[in-house]
């Protein structure tokens, strides 16, 4: 009986696909780049992680690269730093951008466009350029940050050369670069909320905070989920800022998994080992993304 039902379901699925074959044909040009530039490189990386690969050739070693990672002190530091970046940056970006969007939304359309552009510029600008600007800001001798401290009568700080301040300094740079997209998404989400809902809660005597809590936040939940997941993956992929500003120092204080992948692949030419690191990063980021979907998605709403 079960086999019969499975056979019928399979035949129905095949029939439906064949019936809608023209739709799949028209979608093919959009799927082709995804397969070519996402799926194929991902599969190649998974396979390469099982090899000891370099410039002169490759040799199959199974899961030996992953075993080495467990005893790699630099990778352990990079993993911890990456988690600190994600935990420290993503929630802060969520709160700041949501608050900014709520304040910008009531403004006239001209001012909304101005703030959209102002916050989005760091996204389209080169990460190298922005990192160079922040290097000047953090310069211990003539940087803007220490100048402001001197105005306040405080001593200068070695922002990027101190193990206690290097990672928070990088987190601040990353945070400013991640503000643009969430603000635009939140503004779009606020624009899709029917004004009649706010009129209804105000008739019931609700204040602004109550309306925000029981109308704005629930209706923005899909946007918040999308922002949370995408910004988490963005934080996991940080390496340009580290390369330009600190090169992972001092004493591994700012190294990330993505930066370790870059070092292993393009400085030491250990492509198999770099692929193993990338696979671990993919698994960790994917697991966190699934947890976020479970807590804030449909699963979380059913509880």
- Gyration radius from CA atoms, angstroms: 24 Å
User: What sort of overall outline do the alpha carbons produce when their principal axes are compared?
Assistant: flat
User: How many runs of DSSP E, i.e. beta strands?
Assistant: 2
- Average pLDDT over all residues: 88
CATH class: Mainly Alpha
Topology order in helix (H) and strand (E) letters: HHEEHHHHHHHHHHHHHH
* Parts with pLDDT < 50 across at least 5 consecutive residues: 299-303
What does it look like?
The chain has 303 residues and is mostly helical. It has one domain: Orthogonal Bundle (MetI-like fold). It contains 16 helices and 2 strands. A two-stranded antiparallel ribbon has the order 1-2. A hairpin with a 4-residue loop joins strand 1 (51-53) and strand 2 (58-60). Mean pLDDT is 88; it is low at 299-303.
Which key terms come to mind for this protein?
303 residues; MetI-like fold; two-stranded antiparallel ribbon; 16 helices
């Amino acid at each position: 009986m079960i086999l019969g039902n499975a056979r019928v379901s399979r035949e129905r699925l095949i029939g439906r696909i064949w019936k809608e074959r023209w739709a799949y044909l028209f979608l093919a040009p959009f799927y082709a780049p995804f397969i070519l530039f996402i799926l194929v490189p991902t599969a190649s990386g998974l396979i390469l992680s099982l090899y000891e690969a370099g410039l002169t050739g490759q040799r199959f070693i199974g899961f030996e690269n992953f075993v080495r990672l467990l005893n790699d002190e630099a990778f352990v530091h990079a993993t911890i730093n990456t988690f600190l970046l994600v935990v420290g940056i993503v929630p802060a970006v969520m709160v700041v951008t949501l608050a900014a969007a709520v304040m910008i939304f009531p403004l006239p359309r001209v001012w909304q466009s101005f703030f959209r552009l102002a916050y989005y510029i760091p996204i389209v600008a080169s990460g190298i350029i922005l990192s160079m600007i922040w290097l000047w800001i953090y310069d211990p001798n003539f940087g803007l940050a220490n100048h402001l401290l001197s105005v306040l009568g405080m001593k200068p700080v070695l922002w990027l050369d101190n193990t206690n301040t290097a990672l928070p300094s990088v987190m601040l740079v990353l945070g400013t670069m991640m503000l643009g997209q969430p603000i635009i998404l939140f503004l779009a989400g606020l624009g899709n909320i029917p004004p009649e809902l706010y009129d209804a809660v105000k008739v019931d005597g609700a204040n602004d905070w109550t309306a925000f809590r029981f109308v704005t936040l629930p209706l923005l939940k899909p946007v918040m989920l999308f922002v949370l997941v995408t910004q988490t993956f963005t934080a996991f992929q940080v390496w340009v800022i580290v390369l330009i500003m600190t090169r992972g120092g001092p004493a591994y204080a700012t190294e990330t998994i993505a930066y370790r992948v870059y070092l292993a692949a393009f400085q030491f030419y250990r492509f198999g080992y770099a692929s193993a690191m990338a696979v671990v990063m993919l698994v960790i980021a994917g697991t966190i993304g699934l947890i976020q979907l479970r807590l804030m998605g449909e699963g979380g709403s059913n509880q």
